[in-house]
Design goal:
Largest sheet of chain A: 5 strands, mixed
Oligomer: heterodimer
Mean pLDDT of chain B: 94
Shape of chain A: elongated
Strand order of the largest sheet of chain B: 3-2-1-4
Shape of chain B: globular
Structural class of chain A: alpha+beta
Order of helices and strands of chain B: HHHHEHHEHEHEHHEEHEHEHHHHHH
Number of helices of chain A: 7
Structural class of chain B: alpha/beta
Helix content of chain A: 40-55%
Strand content of chain A: 5-15%
Number of strands of chain B: 8
Chain lengths: ~150, ~450
């Protein structure tokens, strides 16, 4: 069931648009902010609340790469894999994360702590390579910095 | 040298508050507009300024605004495209994070000129600091009476909202952006009708880039002629240029429109890293053709004459220690991933290109691959796809095949990448020892 908070936040979003369906992405983001991901059950409830078909909502949910339709860890690591970071050697960052965490893109550590995902250009190309963990951006990342950065996220 | 976009940016990189912005003349252009100018007057000044869109396409801003029907009907929308996600581009982030009020002032003036009553900032999710900063600035502007009902007692009303995205590069395409704001999949729309006539929720809508909108307050305050004269060439104004890659001092700088690529790289970016040579550069993000001549002037007209596009004006440098095939493969991997999937040539063609390039990098390239890539560049070019995404993706490919053809041939002839030992990049392991062109070759 959607919680009272979720419903209230979704209704706040629908009040700002001409028709309820236009708040679809916002509604999915609300659910994800509360539950970290959007389960089939949540998807059905969002659809019913917005008076949309489940397929319509899932079409939207699966289009956007930052809406998660599978369970994710407590912290999301977004590794920039675009051109400037590639030129500046982001592959070493990915390798070190893979070795240290034992996961690759799209996977979650067994303790449920981290999920690692690739992300298009993070828009800080003069400070490449870059990555984000949750809401925090890290620039000029070197492999030796990674363990220290990861420790901040329990 | 005048820097109307960045002159007030604080040295510590913190955003200029409303009070700080007002102290340096902020919102005086809006006061000028609302105390006697008509929307037509604003439009005339912007047209005469020769301002061209800074998001990548370079369409004349005043002309774009002039397509909005002047029938006074409501609602109509002004949208700031802050979905900066073009690989290699980091200029709008600077403005969003450092001078939020200049953007908001520009948006209010633009909205007034087209008669909009509702405005949105469409911001990519990953710009978390910018989201917080823009939210605060919108709140400050509301409190000060620059937004909301009866702005500065002029009778003009404008709402402004921040919308943060949920990912996907295609949201930066203006009609895809509109679909996303409507809560749908971000698939581009057919044009016509153009958004100026039928845009967000079917209403007249203007979508302008962050940097474009930030140019508006100084143009109104100091005039069209002043703006035109900022430039070294026929394309007006200043431009926020950036350089990334293996240079000594990567960064972004506001400079007169029309500085040369050489000046950008050798002076502002401090030259190539020691032991590295310049081979070429994408002048304005992932979807622009390589330039190899350092003396090209970085304005819309000159870059076009050199066979590329100014794009976002943020340069990505290719050096001699970096494999051109790998460079293009990384770009095509991006485009393959970010294709919205709506039209077949783009959805199917770009992954095919990525697979061929990956095979080539892994030493599995074969005779005929280069010709096949050239054929793809043609069939995914302008006129063959639903939007400009795939033609953009073909620009670095076709120009790499032109300028670095020997390097592509070496990969095939030597059955290996001369620059590296193993390909570790995202997804490439899926294609190792897979030659997508094999079937075609066998049937010859």
């Amino acid at each position: 069931m959607l919680s009272r908070e979720e419903i209230s936040e979704i209704d706040h979003a629908t009040s700002a648009v001409p028709y309820r369906q236009a708040a679809c992405i916002e509604a999915l983001k609300v659910v994800q902010a509360h539950r970290r991901w959007v389960s089939d059950e949540s998807l059905r409830e969002v659809a019913s609340h917005l008076k949309m078909s489940v397929d319509e909502v899932d079409a939207v949910a699966t289009f956007y790469n930052l809406i998660f339709r599978k369970p994710v860890g407590r912290h999301i690591i977004l590794v920039c894999d675009s051109i400037s970071c590639w030129v500046m050697g982001y592959e070493q960052i990915r390798e070190r994360l893979r070795a240290h965490l034992g996961i690759d893109y799209g996977e979650t550590t067994t303790d449920g702590r981290y999920t690692m995902l690739p992300n298009p250009c993070l828009g800080t190309c003069d400070c490449a390579p870059a990555l984000m963990i949750d809401n925090d951006l890290y620039r000029k990342v070197t492999p030796s910095m990674l363990e220290g950065i990861l420790e901040k996220y329990s | 040298m005048e820097k109307p976009l960045t002159q007030h940016i604080r040295a510590d990189g913190k955003p200029l508050t409303l009070a700080e912005y007002e102290r340096v003349g902020g919102y005086s252009a809006l006061r000028k507009v609302l105390s006697g100018m008509t929307p037509g007057d604003v439009l005339t000044v912007v047209k005469e300024s020769n301002l061209r869109g800074r998001g990548g396409a370079g369409f004349p801003t005043g002309l774009k605004w002039s397509f909005v029907p002047q029938d006074g009907s409501k609602p109509r929308y002004l949208i700031c495209n802050a979905d900066e996600m073009e690989p290699g581009t980091f200029k709008d982030r600077l403005l969003l994070e450092c001078t939020p009020h200049q953007l908001i002032e520009g948006m209010i003036i633009a909205a007034f000129a087209i008669g909009a009553d509702i405005s949105y900032v469409f911001l990519r999710w990953a710009y978390r600091d910018a989201a917080r900063i823009i939210n605060t600035a919108i709140h400050e502007a509301k409190q000060a009476g620059y937004l909301g009902a009866n702005i500065l007692r002029s009778g003009y009303n404008l709402e402004m909202h921040l919308h943060t995205g949920a990912g996907r590069y295609i949201c930066g395409e203006e009609t895809a952006l509109l679909n996303s704001l409507e809560g749908k999949r971000a698939i581009p729309r057919a044009k016509p009708p153009f958004p100026q006539v039928s845009g967000l929720f079917g209403r007249p809508t203007i979508v302008n880039n962050v940097e474009t909108l930030c140019c508006i307050p100084p143009i109104i305050a100091l005039g069209a002629e002043w703006f035109r004269k900022l430039s070294l060439t026929s394309d007006a104004g200043t431009k926020i240029y950036g350089v990334s890659g293996k240079v000594k001092k990567p960064g972004a700088w506001e400079l007169p429109m029309g500085v040369t690529l050489r000046e950008l790289i050798e002076e502002h970016a401090g030259g190539m890293l020691d032991g590295h040579k310049f081979r070429g550069a994408l002048p304005g993000g992932a979807s622009t053709d390589f330039l190899v001549d350092l003396d090209v002037k970085m304005d819309y007209t000159s870059v076009a004459a050199a066979g590329s596009r100014l794009g976002t004006g943020t340069v990505v440098v290719l050096d001699d220690h970096t494999c051109p095939v790998g460079f293009v493969r990384n770009l095509e991997q991006f485009f393959a991933q970010e294709s919205c999937g709506f039209c077949t040539p783009c959805r199917e063609g770009i992954p095919w290109i990525r697979n061929i390039l990956t095979a080539m990098e892994n030493g599995d390239g074969q005779p005929g691959d280069i010709e096949l890539l050239e054929q793809h560049a043609l069939y995914l070019g302008p006129g063959h796809t639903f939007c400009a995404f795939a033609p953009g993706a073909m620009e670095p490919l076709q120009s790499a095949l032109k300028y670095f053809r020997d390097d592509f041939e070496r990969h095939i002839n030597e059955h290996a990448c001369p620059w590296r030992h193993a390909v570790n990049d995202h997804n490439s392991h899926n294609f190792s020892h897979f030659q997508p062109n094999q079937y075609a070759a066998d049937t010859h």
